[in-house]
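Service request form, structural biology core

Requester: graduate student, group of Dr. S.
Request type: structure prediction, single chain
Budget code: on file
Notes: please return the result as structure tokens.

Sequence provided:
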Amino acid sequence: MKQIALLLSTLILALNVTGCAKNYQSVSQVEDSGFLVLKGNYVGTEIIIGDQVIVIDEDTKFYKVDGERVAKFPLAVGSHNIEVRRDGNVILARKLFLTNEQSAEVLIP
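Core staff response, request fulfilled:
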């Protein structure tokens, strides 16, 4: 009788322990934006992205990437027409397509 009670107790304990196991799932959501990264001779230029004009001067925030000074701007996911002007002249025109968290590097001559 003691063996049956011990066996039942062990079985109940085992079922309780395995029943308490949890299954965790996680979902991560990436941001719906990418980045335009400017390299090269971009100080003193205007960047035109759609209807937005960004003037790049010494007050623009710069970053160091692999020892090179770059400017980085967030852009929405999708297709963008980028135009770079210096002294009123178009020096670069490009169409970019960005996906989530993608960076598009543009070298300014």
